[in-house]
Amino acid sequence: MSIDDFEGNDIVQNAGKKLCIALQSEDKFVRKLALKEFAESLKPMDHNELHRLFKEVHIYLLNTLRDRSEPVREQAIQTLQLYILEKLPINDYYISYLFPIFIERIGSVEIVEESEEIRLQLLHLIHGIIDKYSEGSQLKAFLNDLVIILKETVKDKYPAIKEMSCKCIILLSKYLPRDFHMQAESLVKPVLGNFSHQRYKIRIDAIQCMEVIVLASSCKALEEVAGPMAERLFDQIPAVRRTVARVAARWLLEYRDRYSFFYKLLPLLLTGLNDEVPETRAEAHTLWLQVGLQYQRENEKDFKDELDFLTQLPKHYPKDLERPNLGCRVLVQRTIGKLTSALARELSSWQADVRVRCSQLLCAVAHHAEDGITQHLQELLVAMYATARDEDERVVVNIVRASQLIGTFVPVDTWKKLILPAIEDGAHYGHLTVLANLIRGAPQDLVCSELREISQLLVDPNVCQSRKARYQKELINCVNSIEDKYSDELSGDIGSLLFRIVATVFSIRDKENDEVLDERMFQRLSDVLKLDNVDDLWKIFLEDLLKSLNGDPKGWTEVTVDRCILETILAYSNASFGQHLGVIGAILVDALDLSVEPEARLRTFIALTEALDKKDVIFKNAINLQIFLETLITDAIKPTLVWHAGRTAEAMRTMATSCLCTALSPAINVDLFTKELLQTLSQQIIPLLLSLTEDGAYRSRHLSLEALVLLKNMMVVKEIWGIDDLIKIYPEILKRLDDPISGVRICSVESISILLEDIPEEFKGDTFKSHHEFIIDTLMIHFDDDEMEFQELIKGVFKVLVKFCKQIVEEKVLKHKPLIRNQDGCDEIIKYIQQIEL
């Protein structure tokens, strides 16, 4: 033996003996220090020495992994990492002593090693061993031990241990691909437990780990994993969803029995195509493209004709849509049956995230399947109707998009036969949402011929007369879709149907929709039909709208749809109103009949009053205006002016009087009444108005005075204002000077002043002196009123009287002056008379 050998043996023996003695110490610091010094002693040794030293100390060294002191165990792992991973050469002899300890400490159901940090360090050591023995031939013998350990550590509560376990599994699959498949399936359940871990990084690691496990396992593993993988599509973290897409893409590309599982794997990748995160969508699109191209290459013979001849886009393919490659389309089309069944079921899930992802998947399926979705449409549409009503707007957006795609690819006649009967049986706004977007997606030249039938259904009272806010919006959305597809070649009948729908919805719109469903709907329809303005729209279609008002107006209530439509006609038809006076007048007579519900009559009176405020517009081109006005006043307004007991009747009289005032107010460019008609009406109305001057409602008294004045002015113009009319009216107006309501008293003074203008010449003579004195005496009584405004108005009446009975006024004022307080007023009247005489 050489001197060198002797010295080498000396080093090994000294190091080994020193370590063994120190490790038997009761002091943990001595044991830890011995391990540190031992690690230092390894650095100058060669492989030969290290091997012989391992034989000497491995039992003592490995026992330190069981040491009761955590710092000692930690130092032992560090020493073993240096010894096994860095110093010793690759030889299964060394690691064969390690794995029993590993299994004992961290590979049993009840893990012996209590320290999380130590367990993690042991896993790092195992990871290092796997990596070092990457060639696999010597590691193969320990695969079973490794799987036993990793099955337990991957379930550890410590996140870092889970993460390292997943990395070890991935490394094993890489270095022992042929042998790993024998053990991989046993790892499925332990790894699946981490799919729902609260830390998203652990979820990502688990999914990546499952990627290699499934690739190495039988089909049973994939069936077990597909469901939990699909659940990760609903993960709130985009990185997790992207990982699912990557893993699914690899399975679709590499899994040996992938053709049998396309229906399970496709949703995992297709859902990402419509993910809300752009990066996820882009990556999913790239991966899906690769899958489709590979499938296309693998089945090139089957696709030869399509690849050679069908190179052009279909005629009606949307310009803003990129068509997937043939492989992608065929993949979806061949699994469409199973995909749509699952979608129809899961779209109604109680979990919001599930509905969101399913709706995203539906968009992708509709895009790829094209007309291949036709035979499964009935089942799918039922689910879409319900999902279109989802509270989550993300779901609704996807249903809208899917409906447009289906409308594009499925023949119009097909989806029309499915959705129209469903709407007819009892529509909710989900039906309308889907229908609107089916129409919007359909090619114009194909859907055009079906628009009339669709419009005919939508105008049906059972469909278009809903007062629900969202329903109304979606119904108008359907109208807008039809308008978008409208063509000049279509008959005007569609325009009438659409106008009736718009008018109905506008008339009964919910308050929530006031700012959305407004007059712009009429303007849009007018633009679509290429009319000059909205007035032309009313001119063309008002007759049809009036004919659609079915039923007896006497049975209308405040909420009756036909009554609401009449209200809209009165308010918005403008000049068209005057061209249909006969029909409108007949409806108004019945609608204002005393037997009609008071609330309904009141609303109709209000609408009529507002319409009559625009006489110059509505009567501009009126036909049979005189007949209409006679019918309106005689048959519609007059019956309500008659006194009936009760608060309701009182309110109705007030409203009817207001409407009469509006009807009697003059128009600038329209001659309302002929002489004969006015004479006839005045004889009927004046007695009623005089009785109303003493009505219990002060507003009725006020309005009756205004109506009498308006009637007098018109009679003067038509030269039928006579002495009998004046004598009949003025005493009742004078009575109102005593009214308890100030506004009525003021109105009465103003009315008497107007009434005494343009009086018949006969009334100025001495024959009617007693009337003059009665008027002056009555006015003098009220000339001392506390209100200055009232005094001034009385003074104005005196000045009117001076014009035809000056002497009597002067005598009466001088006679009453000492008796009243209003001396200044009397002086002013006398002065006014004197100025006239001069």
Automatic annotation (TrEMBL):
Residues 315-508 form the Dynein axonemal assembly factor 5 HEAT-repeat domain. InterPro entries: ARM-like, ARM-type_fold, DAAF5, HEAT_DAAF5, TPR_DAAF5. Residues 23-305 form the Dynein axonemal assembly factor 5 TPR repeats domain. SUPFAM superfamilies: ARM repeat. Pfam families: HEAT_DAAF5, TPR_DNAAF5. Coiled coil: none annotated. Gene3D superfamilies: Leucine-rich Repeat Variant. PANTHER family: DYNEIN ASSEMBLY FACTOR 5, AXONEMAL, DYNEIN AXONEMAL ASSEMBLY FACTOR 5. This is Dynein assembly factor 5, axonemal. The lineage of its organism: Eukaryota, Metazoa, Ecdysozoa, Arthropoda, Hexapoda.
